[in-house]
Amino acid sequence: MGFRCGIVGLPNVGKSTLFNALTETQAAQAANYPFCTIEPNVGQVAVPDERLDKLAAIAGSAKIIPTQLAFVDIAGLVKGASKGEGLGNQFLGNIREVDAIVHVLRCFEDDDIQHVANKVDPLSDAEVVETELMLADLESLEKRVPAAAKKATGGDKEAKIMTSVLGQALDLLRDGKPARLTEPKDDEEARVFAQAQLLTAKPVLYVCNVAEEDAAKGNALSDQVFEKAKAEGAQAVVVSAAIEAELVGMDPEERAEYLKELGLDETGLARVIRAGYELLGLKTFFTVGPKEARAWTFHTGAKAPQAAGEIHTDFEKGFIRAETIAYGDYVALSGEAGAREAGKLRQEGKDYVVQDGDVLHFKFNV
151, 217 in Cβ contact below 8 A? Predict the structure, then answer.
């Protein structure tokens, strides 16, 4: 299962610096001028989960394989992107290919780093990007909805669904609101809405890039962003890209000591990765044995056969049952044998809704 989070923002907000630290590479060129990132760079990052280490220790697993997310560093955007200004067309195309948007906002003052608008105002910066995405969606729907409405008058069922749900999205956009506030009334409308691939329908995580001294508690600028996120039902985290870049070259002990000195419990990047995971409505199940302990990603609400399909499509096609141990029981009872003896290993069928942290072993027949 591949999930991609697109990192966006105006030029010189720390977007590429964050990406470099996030992926612990120098794949994206960080430079103090607009459009230094011209082609989207992609980095796979492990989702931090201390549960996996505990499971591996109990089972004596030879290998530990965490679940991963892909982060895409997308070219900087300027006002007028929806009309092709700057790298607008490329930017919009790259955004269309990701599952969620990680929007980096500058929440620090620094006279040595030029701001494209010559002022530090994260809410204004957010509005520039959001407006361009809304304009692109608006242009698309103002063509599609009338065409669908015309077909709907002829009795076309799909066109009626499209007219209803995309018409609602169009009304929101005309009112200056993102399409993600659309509320499909049933599964059919949800399917059509998802197929429309609207840019403003994608979930958003705001990353407040602050100065080192504000990394622990944020500042007045990041507080504004958190208020905005709360009002939108979005998420926000505080990160100092400068700190994260310094942490990349440190060994684990040095890193822990440095974080402690700064009053931080964990890296900002760990928060970004975890928030991105939550943003996409993802959860984790585990497979554990002597060869490996592995984390697997699944969508919230997935049933056992769907989870099995994340390992291999044959597992889903020939699903028989899932031997299931809750994470807490596995740890408390020192592994599978203890859980089995205590009656905590359950046999679950096709209708079982997988829970976050489940340790699963699938039985299947192809």
Answer: no
Coil, strand, or helix at residue 334?
A: coil
What's 200's DSSP letter? G
Rounded to a whole number of angstroms, the distance between the first and last alpha carbons of the chain is 21
What residues contact residue 353 under an 8 Å CB cut-off, 6+ apart?
301, 302, 303
Q: Token digits for 137?
A: 């969606």
DSSP reduced 3-state for 348: strand
Give how far the C-alpha of residue 351 lies from the chain's centroid of Cα atoms, to the nearest Å. Answer: 27
Q: Digits of tens for pLDDT over the chain (366 positions)?
A: 568 889 988 877 888 888 888 776 544 434 443 434 445 588 888 888 899 999 999 999 999 999 888 888 887 655 554 455 544 556 677 888 898 999 999 998 876 655 555 678 999 999 988 888 899 899 999 999 999 999 999 888 999 999 999 999 999 999 988 898 899 999 999 999 999 989 999 999 999 999 999 999 999 999 999 999 988 878 899 999 889 888 887 888 898 899 999 888 888 888 888 888 888 889 999 999 999 999 999 999 999 999 999 999 999 999 999 999 999 999 999 999 999 999 999 999 999 999 999 999 999 987
Contacts 24+ apart (CB under 8 A), 120-127: 120/221, 122/208, 122/221, 122/222, 122/224, 122/225, 123/224, 123/225, 123/228, 125/9, 125/10, 125/13, 126/206, 126/225, 126/228
At 112, list the tokens.
Answer: 């040595």
Neighbours of 67 (CB within 10 A): 22
**The whole model's pTM is what?**
0.80
CB 362 within 8 A of CB 315: yes
The two tokens of residue 290 are 């002597």
> Where would I find the beta strands (DSSP E) of 39-99?
41-46, 63-65, 68-73
With beta carbons less than 8 A apart as the criterion, state whether 262 and 212 touch. yes
- Name the nearest CA neighbour of 268 among 226, 207, 213, 227: 207
Residue with tokens 């799909």, as numbered in its chain:
158
